[in-house]
Amino acid sequence: MSLLAELERVAAAVERRLDRLLAEPGERPEDKRLGEAMRYAALSGGKRLRPLLLVESARLFGVKEEEALPAATALECIHCYSLAHDDLPAMDDDAVRRGRPALHIAFDEATAILAGDALLTLAFEILSDEGTHPDPAIRAELVLLLARAAGWRGMAQGQALDLSPERQSFTPAEIAAMQELKTGALFRFACEAGAALGRAGLTERAALIAYASSFGQAFQLADDLLDAEGDAAALGKAVAKDASRGKATLIARLGPDMARQRLDELVVEAEEALAPFGDRAITLVETVRFAVDRKR
Amino acid sequence: MSLLAELERVAAAVERRLDRLLAEPGERPEDKRLGEAMRYAALSGGKRLRPLLLVESARLFGVKEEEALPAATALECIHCYSLAHDDLPAMDDDAVRRGRPALHIAFDEATAILAGDALLTLAFEILSDEGTHPDPAIRAELVLLLARAAGWRGMAQGQALDLSPERQSFTPAEIAAMQELKTGALFRFACEAGAALGRAGLTERAALIAYASSFGQAFQLADDLLDAEGDAAALGKAVAKDASRGKATLIARLGPDMARQRLDELVVEAEEALAPFGDRAITLVETVRFAVDRKR
């Protein structure tokens, strides 16, 4: 099966789960509003790249796709909450997301804040549910890993740094560290959760973490290149936002040629990290290439 | 020991834990900002009533205070996150909280949103940590209970309803249902978590849930009475906000005399729910009286 077909299949499966989880939000219009906002934020079509990473990481250890999908759905809830909050006027102030009005435009700011909060909370409800894994030790570990990845020493801190006035004078190393938190932490969770579901040994887990780190950096660099040079219509959101806001990106520091060279290195590093898995990791190898290529 | 002394002891213990958890936020000013905002939101005094309920519910089943404090600290993180987000300009737009500038005034809106997100996430990091309970099945259950209490069918939905334009025409029963979600859900978690930590049977758990429900309603009614009639200086926040915003409260529907009568009934109901525990529940009985009396 081609990577694209698999990506679509996993995306569809995650969306079916989200659709079921967020069904029947209530009878009165006021009961429905929050649930509808959550649906809008969670069912707006993303590529579902993080769920694919989780499913494929788990597959390395013989975990069936069906058994990895609940954790993958929880991860996507966190990703969607972070987009909803990042788009808020007080944060990145983005009016468009995935070619549609951002959540706070389609609804209102208060509802966007609450829907983000509720999606964040839902992720932990999913992970702690028996349906996610029969062994409560695995469920508790998944909760701990996701809370650390998303929290004040992970994604939330990355976003805080990205919004800080000091970011304009960040060195390339500081920018990379910020992006490791803001974007990298969830990629790392995707791979580590797959390893946890598969009860992987420390060596295999470390290999997946190394892959996730290179993947995350490559993904962010490709995203920044696209923002610097891309086409707003193809992207479904505004471009050149980073430069116009004086945001710290590696492109601004390295220049586009150096950035492209670094991107190629990162793809190689990601592939090399997967060497211990041999041919079993072919889909993960293809995924990093796909994630980078679709952006350039 | 008097209830006040115990409340202070539990509050101090929860604060020590929060202080430790949020220590060393980083070296650079930009690394520290998020952690400092979380500290501001979480270490600003509060009575820590919810932690006390959790500790006392667990004590009914022989759980030592020390063993209940981690879950109590997680619960307080959720409470503090909800206050930080509720105070935001897009939500209740409150500039003062506990006699100090609200979080978004003391820092900024983006930091207040992120600090709330991070406190919400930290609650689940605490609950899933081995230090909270040696049995992962208990940890996973606590995560599930808290996620349900705080999420889109719990507290977040209560806040969404409280902000909805339809709230001005809510019936008394609809207001009570809204408050059961917005305020009651966390009180219920406090008591249910205590029962979970103590591996309580279904009957005892149901008794505590009934207590929490009456407690939550009484607490909210007393709070509304205080808002309608209280003294801003004594309260440390603005009063008569609800009326000036046309917010749905039971006071506006029932009138203050009926509301006081209902309050007395709820206190009796809360006490009666504790009957199965006999004298062991004396502190929980005192707590509902205290929570109501300090407000009138």
Here the CATH topology of chain A equals Farnesyl Diphosphate Synthase
Distinct helical segment count of chain A: 15
Q: Based on the coordinates given, report the CATH architecture of chain A.
A: Orthogonal Bundle
Largest sheet of chain A: 2 strands, antiparallel
Report the mean per-residue pLDDT of chain A as an integer. 92
Return the domain count of chain A: 1
Biggest interface, chains and residues, is: A-B, 56 and 56 residues
Spatial separation of the terminal alpha carbons of chain A: 24 Å
Please provide the ordered H/E string of secondary-structure elements of chain A.
HHHHEEHHHHHHHHHHH
Structural class of chain A: mainly alpha
Beta strands of chain A, count: 2
Strand and helix map with partners:
Two copies of one chain form a homodimer.
Chain A (H helix, E strand, L loop, with lengths): L2 H19 L7 H14 L6 H11 L5 H22 L9 E2 L2 E2 L1 H4 L2 H20 L7 H15 L4 H9 L8 H26 L4 H28 L2 H4 L5 H4 L5 H5 L1 H18 L8 H12 L3
Antiparallel strand pairs in A: 1-2
